């Protein structure tokens, strides 16, 4: 272990507060004076002030320049008193403060360099922790993405009648996944707006003018369900193009989204298309839609096959935060405060 590492291990990361530093300086100088006076029979009368340099050095390293100045002042007074009591004169009290000031300056410079080293080492440790956290997050997301891709590929193979249909289905799903991931990167730690998520998922289908998106811009997607919700909307549009309202020139799709103080919902409604009949056992696409809000507390998916058109409602996920758009939680203390102010009036 070199000297720098030893000093970094012994010294605190920050200098002591002002009053603690002053107490440390006075205490060290007083102890040094007592020990020097008690050791006079063994040491003799020479080098009275030498005993005070360790106190000044420790005060400068542990508490900074102000504590070092206090240690120099107290040491000078104590040394002069000891010298006068031993020799009958205070010789050396003028030279000692100058030499002690040089020692304190050097010690404070060393302390400043060590503080810089502490800062750099702390910054490097924080960076290493952040990189490790990012690596774990990337590993987790990549595994989740691969699992979703594997499930989509398997479902597309089961649901498609030929390779072209499977290719089109997978391309649509992968495009929706890519758009959702891009939105997640753009917003960072914020939640993704449902309206933008739906518009990105419906981008390949919305050019015909048969789809209207009427979603509150302040409505946010449930955390952790953004990709699955995008895939579900894309699956609804794909099925509508094959069997539902988008397969007919007169058909239309309306996507609405709103929220109350506590819960949000997104509704997919089809009308003007072929007559809808209740299907048989759940298909792979239906299972994908029903799993859209699996990760959202209280989230549910209700699919209704009305003769006039399919209706799918994604509902029940909680609205994050105290306020979203015009919805506001009314706190009891605010209400009591307003009542009290009315009474004062």
Q: How would you describe the overall organization of this protein?
A:
The chain starts with a helix and ends with a helix. The protein folds into 2 domains: 3-126, no CATH class; 160-328, Histidine kinase-like ATPase, C-terminal domain (Heat Shock Protein 90), CATH 3.30.565. Helix 7 (163-187) runs antiparallel to helix 8 (194-201). The longest helix has 65 residues, at 95-159. With 345 residues, it is of the alpha+beta class. The protein is rod-shaped and about 120 Å long. It contains 11 helices and 7 strands. The model is unreliable at 321-345 (pLDDT under 50). It has helices at 3-10, 18-38, 40-43, 53-63, 65-87, 95-159, 163-187, 194-201, 226-242, 284-290, 332-344; strands at residues 211-215, 252-259, 263-271, 300-306, 309-318, 323-324, 327-328. It has a 5-stranded mixed β-sheet with strand order 1-2-3-5-4, covered by helices on one side. Strands 6-7 form a two-stranded antiparallel sheet.
Residue runs with pLDDT of under 50 for 5 or more positions: 321-345
Largest sheet: 5 strands, mixed
The CATH class of the largest domain is identified as Alpha Beta
Enumerate how many helices there are, as a single number. 11
Transmembrane segments: 41-61, 68-86, 92-114
EC number: 2.7.13.3
Protein name: histidine kinase
Pfam families: HWE_HK (PF07536)
How do you describe this structure in short?
The protein has 345 residues and is of the alpha+beta class.
């Amino acid at each position: 272990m070199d000297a720098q590492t030893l000093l970094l291990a012994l010294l605190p990361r920050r200098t002591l507060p002002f009053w603690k530093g002053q107490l440390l300086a006075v205490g060290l100088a007083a102890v040094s004076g007592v020990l020097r006076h008690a050791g006079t029979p063994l040491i003799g009368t020479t080098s009275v002030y030498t005993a005070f340099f360790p106190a000044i050095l420790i005060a400068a390293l542990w508490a900074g320049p102000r504590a070092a100045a206090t240690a120099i002042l107290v040491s000078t007074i104590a040394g002069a008193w000891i010298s006068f009591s031993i020799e009958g004169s205070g010789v050396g009290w003028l030279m000692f403060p100058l030499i002690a000031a040089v020692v304190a300056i050097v010690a404070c410079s060393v302390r400043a360099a060590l503080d810089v080293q502490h800062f750099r080492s702390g910054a490097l440790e924080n960076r290493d922790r952040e990189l490790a956290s990012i690596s774990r997050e990337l590993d987790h997301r990549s595994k989740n993405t691969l699992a979703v891709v594997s499930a989509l590929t398997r479902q597309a193979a089961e649901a498609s009648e030929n390779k072209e249909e499977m290719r089109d289905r997978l391309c649509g799903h992968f495009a929706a996944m890519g758009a959702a991931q891009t939105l997640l990167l753009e917003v960072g730690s914020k939640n993704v707006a449902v309206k933008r998520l739906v518009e990105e998922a419906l981008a390949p289908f919305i050019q015909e003018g048969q789809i209207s998106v009427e979603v509150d811009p302040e409505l946010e997607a449930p955390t952790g369900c953004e990709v699955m919700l995008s895939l579900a909307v894309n699956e609804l549009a794909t099925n509508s193009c094959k069997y539902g309202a988008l397969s007919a020139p007169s058909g239309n799709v309306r996507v609405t989204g709103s929220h109350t103080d506590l819960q949000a919902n997104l509704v997919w409604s089809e009308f003007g298309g072929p007559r809808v009949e209740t299907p048989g056992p759940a298909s792979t696409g239906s299972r994908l839609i029903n799993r859209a809000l699996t990760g959202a507390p209280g989230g549910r998916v209700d699919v209704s096959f009305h003769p006039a058109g399919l209706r799918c409602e994604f509902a029940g996920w909680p609205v994050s935060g105290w306020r979203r758009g015009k919805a506001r939680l009314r706190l009891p203390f605010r209400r009591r405060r307003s009542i009290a102010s009315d009474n004062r009036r």
